[in-house]
Amino acid sequence: MRACHWAAALTLTAVGFQTSRATEPNETFATRTILGPSVRSVTDELTPGLVETPNTLLGIQDHFGQVYFTDDNGSSEGNGFASGVGGVPTNSGSIDFSVSGVGDDAFDGSHGESGQYVVFVDVYDFFGDLIDTRSEIRTLAPGAVDGFSFNDFEWIGGDYDVYIDNTIGPASGADVDFFTFTGLSPGSPFSAETLDPTSMGIDTRLAWFDAAGALIADDDDGGSGFLSKLEGTVPAGGALTFAVSGFEDDDYVGAHLEDDPYELKLTIGGGGFAADFNNDNKVTGADLASWRSNFGPSATGDADGDNDTDGADFLVWQRELGSGVGGLAASATVAIPEPGGVLLMALAAMPCLAFRTRQRSDRHF
Q1: What is the DSSP letter of 309?
Q2: What is the pLDDT of residues 258-271, one digit of tens each?
Q3: How far apart are CA 47 and CA 175, in angstroms?
Q4: End-to-end CA distance of the chain
């Protein structure tokens, strides 16, 4: 007869967390990618938005405000469609010019150009020495003409260069990705960070949102290099929602020019494993020993966020066994003594109980 002991030898399969691929569309909180409980990282890529680059026309004005000289694409800045003129005499210390869109030779607003631009003015004295610089950002609108006027008595007898950069406008329509991680342990500390899997130098922004879509926190370069990182505590719902965007997209609406893949990695607790009860960044038999010694109302062996240590936490340990351990075999045989009241151990003991019952019954016949 095979002996039966109040200890069971169980073969447990080590199952680690998964990396998922984002599903599109996920550009808003409402369309975010919902990740399963076994997912702790997700990959996606950012695509750049479009920047409005107005094709400008520059008109130099005289004392009376009349345009007497124009330029279309003379600037050394911008994309080749920005205007610029050099060596313009000041109007007795006054600088006056207008900016319109290409084709508006009459400077009456007959154009359809739009977008932000910056005007630079460099002022030189009679001897050709730089004595002042000015710059101003404007937004050109279709049908509009922007006028500029600067003056200083020290500029009398001098001249100036004026040139435009038409590529400064914010991008629009770029990619921003929202994700929700689920099945997390409420109250557990977490860190979320972006990674650069292709080493292309992606510059990310990372935001954390509550269950209603309100911004809780965001970060630009808190991670490695130009990558982002946030830390906090898992809320009561056991879910965390993040958005990944590119540099300068402070509002997470897709206003950036980043164009590379990235990975968003979530780490829960010390090592990212709910059953890492001893916080050594891996799940092994040592965590089982911790679970056993704390079985009951203690939260030390709590893996499912209900603030006690019971059979449900054992199942989490079983699922995560081997996580964080390089080279661990796919399964491990572990002897598990029975804590009182654990359903798994009760089930393990049931065949022995049935055998003993039959044995006693046989003695009566």
Answers
A1: B
A2: 999 999 999 887 55
A3: 5
A4: 20
